[in-house]
Amino acid sequence: QVFDDEGKDVTPHPLFHSDPDMLVPRQGKLWASSACFGATGPAFLSSFSTCQTSGVHAGSVSWPYSSSSLLSNATAAPLNGTAEPASPQDTTVSLTDVRVRQEEITEEVTKKDLDGRVDIYLTETETLWILAVPPVVLSVESEDAGRVLEQNKIYADICKNRPGNDRFVEKMMQTLNGAAKHKEVQCDKIIMEDKGTMVTSRDLHNSFNISEMEPVSRAGGSRATPGQRRKSHATEEHDQPVSVSLDTGSTTSTTISENAALARIHKEQAVLTSENFQQHLFSMERILMENIFQPQLAAYWQLPVLRDPALTSDTRGTVAAIKEQHNKEKKDKEEQKEALVDPSILLELNKTPAKTAPPSLERLWSYMCNLTNGHSVSSMAWSKVNPDLLAVGYGAFDFKEQKKGLACCWSLKNPRWPERIFPCEHGVTALDFSTSSPKLLAVGMYDGSVAIFDVRSRNTAAFLDSRDSSNNHTGPVWQLRWVEQDRGTSADGRKERLVCLSADGRVNALDCTDLMKIKRTESEKKNLPGEALLSREAAGMCFDFHPKDTNIYLAGTEEGLIHRCSCLCNEHFLETYRGHTGPVYKVAWNPFSTDMFLSCSADWSIILWHQDSQMPILTFHSATAFVHDIMWSPKSAFVFAAVNESSTEIWDLSASTLNPTISRFASPRVTFTSVLFAKNTDCLLVGDSKGEVSVFELQNLAVPGSAQ
Questions:
Q1: pLDDT tens-place string over residues 569-578
Q2: Phi-psi region of 374 (alpha: psi -120 to 50; beta: other; left: phi over 0)
Q3: Residue among 471, 549, 482, 485 at smallest CA distance from 517
Q4: Are 495 and 485 in contact (CB under 8 A)?
Q5: C-alpha span between 491 and 214 (Å, rounded)
Q6: Dist. CA 412–CA 141, nearest whole Å
Q7: What is the pLDDT of residue 606?
Q8: Contact indicator for 551, 564 with CB cutoff of 8 Å
Q9: Residue 335 has what pLDDT?
């Protein structure tokens, strides 16, 4: 027994409680009562219970956790009276044989019992592991010794190569980075779709009355008369079951319905694929787009916005509003009469000009679809005869981000989807419409090839391609343009040529005639000993022909120089302008003051030049970003637009030469790449690096006349 500090009995009770009335103990298998001397009944049963469940051999004794109930003296006393010690085979004890109560153990232990020999066999039970910690030390003679030594060697090599290695991260612990864990989650989105079909009243009528349709015989193809039907029914009643006739009629009816459905499907497909139906769909699409974008298109063409009177559904509210307005006007007239105010004074007050709002760029819409998303807008050009048709080239300026390009023709009548899509093998870098043949669209690509497409045809293949030419460019075609030049003495002697400028330093026409090979100029900085030029030609970046004399043109180079050249002389430059310290991205003649031109560069600057002076007239700095594109306004000699990496700017030189008049910043992670003025309206088109061409309206900008 176990007692606590206060004297209470806290002896653990056995989990197994035996019932003494179930079985009578067998006398041949029972130990003497002296074997339990000093032990209580429950403790004695507990010891035998533990021994029996542990699976030891016969005659063994396994002690429980309580050491206070150990046997002090045990004597094997079999019932046959022999005094020989009990052997393990003779002392087989089962749990059911131990039915000893505490009151039965009352015999006294004699001296002979104390002096007798008792054999006790102790065996180890199965080990119960409560906490198992794997060892970190292994014997060299074990089977896994070689594997552990190899892992230790690998770890030593890793620790040796760890200093200065980027694969390791310094942390506040002396351990290696753990391996990445893989987790699996359900990431497939459950897509819900709405399915529907169009059903006409004719389809409903045929489907509802399909069971009433009379079957038609396949053999004769004629309808049976009422007398024949009655005769057949009478015959069926005597000869065959009625079910045969019903089954035949249902099969024929099903066949007729299937044939009718197939015929209807073929007819609908023929209607959907017909050219007349496609033309009607095209007209319907135009009407829907004009209804959706009517306010934006009206603002673009500077027309009044139409309001739909059917949008006001509450007639009572409209009548109440009209009455309230009428009462308000009547009240105002009465107050005017009471104040005796002269109407002429009110007229003069109404004529007083209100304070005008500052100039701004209001976004109308944007040209963008799934095909153009992710492609950078590289160039834009208007059609020479159709003011609604816009050609946009999509490519990439970075060598590492090159991918297939697109040339799309957008219309103002459908800003949602392009009218023509011309896929290209390489990124599009420049494009332009022809003047003499407005259907031809020339496209320059990053690989140096030039392709010409016919926009009137729905064929996406190129009408003409320069890849097979031996005089093809070896660098990206950064700019191309259709130019009309004098080729004869008569009035009809002007012919149009396609002029291209490439990064290989060549300015040539499509007829394989080199107008100029831009050579590198001698730098003021002397070359170091052993330093040599890789190429004598300088990479051309842009050009622009004189608005009056098409034999004169400007060419900007990657060196930051601008050369004035002539088509009549392909060996020397007429003039060289030095002012930029980075590649010149764009040059543009002023369409009104033809002696002036602009240039923009990667050195964050825009410079205004005069063709007779090698020194810049004005230099504009507004942001620390590359200036990608510039363009003069077609309505004023003082206004031009510029786009840099972060904003679009409108400069009015008659108002300020220090700061732009209007600035609109780009969205995060978006770069403006190109700019284009609309021909007949006060709108501006801006392309960005995400493939979107935004249309902006110039508001409250007092543009000086072109005569100034």
A1: 877 889 999 9
A2: left
A3: 471
A4: yes
A5: 81
A6: 86
A7: 95
A8: no
A9: 56
Cα 708 from Cα 700, distance rounded (Å): 20
Of 181-195, 215-229, 325-339, minimum mean pLDDT range? 215-229
Residue owning tokens 């284009």 = 676
The structure tokens listed for 62 are: 């396994």
Q: How far apart are CA 414 and CA 296, in angstroms?
A: 12
Burial 454-488 (b: 16+ CB within 10 A, else e): bbeeeeeebeebbeeeeebbebbbbbbbbbebeee
DSSP secondary structure, 142-155, as one string: STTHHHHHHHHHHH
Bridge partner list, 561: 578
3-class DSSP string for 205-244 = HHHHCHHHCCCCCCCCCCCCCHHHHHHHHHHHHHCCCHHH
pLDDT band, very low/low/confident/very high, at 74 (cuts 50, 70, 90): very low
Helices (H) and strands (E) in the chain, counts: 10, 28
Mean pLDDT of 656-683: 92
Pairing of strands 389-395, 405-411: antiparallel
Among 229, 59, 53, 197, residue whose Cα is nearest residue 125: 53
Q: Which domains does the chain possess?
A: 429-485+495-520+535-698 (2.130.10.10)
Take residue 125 and report the two structure tokens written for it: 């039970």
Distance in angstroms (rounded) separating the CA atoms of residues 481 and 450: 11
Confidence of residue 325 (pLDDT cuts 50, 70, 90): low
d(CA 44, CA 72): 12
pLDDT higher than threshold 80 for residue 235:
no
pLDDT band at 194 (very low <50, low <70, confident <90, very high): confident
pLDDT on residue 380: 96
Tell me what pLDDT residue 247 has: 44
Q: Say which amino acid occupies 304.
A: P
